Amino acid sequence: MSGHDLFPSATPEYILSFQFSSWYPAFAKHTIKSTIIRPLSSEFMEYMNADRVFVPEGSEDAPAESTLSDDEKDENPDDSEEDADEESQKRYAFPELDQQIRDCVKEYGAVFPKLNFSAPKARLYSSSVPLTDVSLSFRLPIQDAVWLLPASAPLKCTSPADVYLLLKSSDFINHDLGTDTVFEGCSFDTNNPPDYQLELVLRKWYPVDRGRELRCFVRDNKLLGLSQRDTNYYEFWNNQQTQRDITAAIKIFWETNIKAHWETQKDYAFDFLLTRDLSHGHILDFNPYSPKTDPLLFTYEELHQFLQKDLCAVLRVVDSRSHPAATSNAPAYQHNMIPFEAVNMSSGRDIEDFAELWKESVKKSMGKDFD
């Protein structure tokens, strides 16, 4: 079986049809209300590619307060060196973009940011934690961390600083920052690359029950498979009548609201959020039908077999707590987690100093020796 059998031809035009600004106008009434900001300045792109995790000047709605006492500051012999390092770092400020973000927050109440294709998976800090420059002197695996987040409000941004820090702390959005990753696997003249502009998308935020999300796969204009997106075990998914009702509801939605309007593509995946009563839902995103898009509880070989056998809308869910894909005891992206306090402590220190400081902090918080 060749790769061409499994996937449609990857061209720049095909990939670009899945960036947010390409599909949102046609499906705006069936998805979350959003604002697209483009073009973005070259300086913003430079900021996004900078190694340090920090917020631009003027982006916070309230001045950050130091968590160190005056005595602690006086006792730190490295203060002058850290100050010198900070002075040598380039500073960024985006007052016009800040205002656009604040306008969206005022309109929506709160926002969730993403770029052309990719979105962060979880927020690095909570709004109760003062924002500071959290530049790192060594690379810490902080991307898409979920420490200190209340389950009811992850990814919720209410200021420009929230938006910037969430994007900067995410590893997933790096895909969107360069044509080499965006058009990976595509053939095109490197001397005449596709026209690609970075865009910032601000979506109206509201709490989402991930247990009601599905990823749906369409090939040759046929709805082949529906996969539970969050691979934890949910009891309601294993009621046979519920499965039939959900499958029927998604088929009707797809045939009525997507198939008839997605005129440019016959091969794609779309993420779908069911309403609380599971009777209908909303589009969350569109993705290319390609290896980059996680097939979740399927494999692309299985989906190809469905196409050959003319099977339609096969629903697959985590049917038991012992299902191989179940992650109920292990948070997603746990290998990337690190507490916000650890990021603060790391600034200006090498790995040995940081390890000792973190050990002392844990010892104090536990009130006992830590070996």
Automatic annotation (TrEMBL):
Classification of source organism: Eukaryota, Fungi, Dikarya, Basidiomycota, Agaricomycotina
Entries under InterPro entries matching the protein: CDC123
Residue ranges with Acidic residues bias: 58-86
One GO location term (cellular component): cytoplasm
Name of the protein in question: Cell division cycle protein 123
Family classification: Belongs to the CDC123 family.
Disordered, as annotated region: 55-92
